[in-house]
Amino acid sequence: MFVNWSNDWIQVVDNLNDVVFDDNENGIHGLITQKHCEKCIAVNQCWFANEKNKKPESMEYSIEQILNDSKNKIGLYHYNCHCQEIDILTPTEKDIKLICPEGKDDWLFRDKTPWIRSLGYENDNAFLEYLKKKVVESYCLGQYEIRDITKYGVAINVFVNIEGRGKNFGKIYTAKSAWMVFSNGKLKCNTFLGGKAK
Q1: No. of helices (H) and no. of strands (E), the chain
Q2: CB 174: neighbour CB atoms within 10 A?
Q3: pLDDT tens digits for 146-159?
Q4: Full-model pTM
C-alpha cells in the first residue's frame, strides 16, 4: 500500500530515547537529563506544522563547523543530538486528543464571562465544546505559534476564530488559546481563552 506523506507536518523522533514529556508538572529532571537535553525530551514524539515558529528551531551551524564534523556530531538541535524530523500526514480533527485539567473550564467562565457574552454566547458547556472544536481545527490548520520550549514542555498559542452571534453575527473574533503540545497528537490546556490575538 502506498501512503502519501507530505512535508506539511513533522514529528520529532529520537530513536534512542523512548521518554516523552506527557504531563510532568514538576518539569523534566533527574537521570534522564544526563543522557538527553530538556528540549529533546520536551519535543520527542510531538507533531508540528513544518514552518518557522511552529516547530522547534534547529541549530544553525557554520560552514566551518559542518566541514570539520568528521565524527558526525552535528545534530538537529545541538551537537550529538539524536532527534530527527519525520514527515507525517497532516493531522485531522479525529487525530487530536485534548487534555483539559479539572478547573480550567471553571476559570474560563469565572474570568471571561463578560467577553464570552459580548461575542453573543452563553456561559455554558455548549460554548466550551465549540471552543474546543475551534482549537482542534486551528491546530490542524497550523494556526498556532510556539511560545516557549522549557523543562515544562512545548507551550503554544493557538489562534481560534470565533464567529459572533446575535448582534455580532457575521463578525469573526480571533483569540489566543494556550496549550502544551504532548506526544502523538495530544494537547493539554493551559488557558482556554488568553486574550484577543493581535
Answers
A1: 4, 8
A2: 13
A3: 999 988 889 999 99
A4: 0.86
